[in-house]
Fold:
Amino acid sequence: MRQLDYRHHFRDKVLHCCDCRQSFVFTAGEQAYFQSKGLSAPKRCKSCRELRKRTLIPDMEERSG
Ligand SMILES: [Zn+2]
Structure:
């Protein structure tokens, strides 16, 4: 049986959202997922991320041409 033993490597972390400044938990499971995708730690809490997803704020709006 092969299972990802991320619990030995990751621990729940408390991060601070760069949008609302609230603290949120970056769980061990999420850390393993983010690392497997080659992503760095999230800068926003879950609700702010959901909000951005829902409103679909374009990141690159400044496009002169
Ligand atoms: Zn937030």
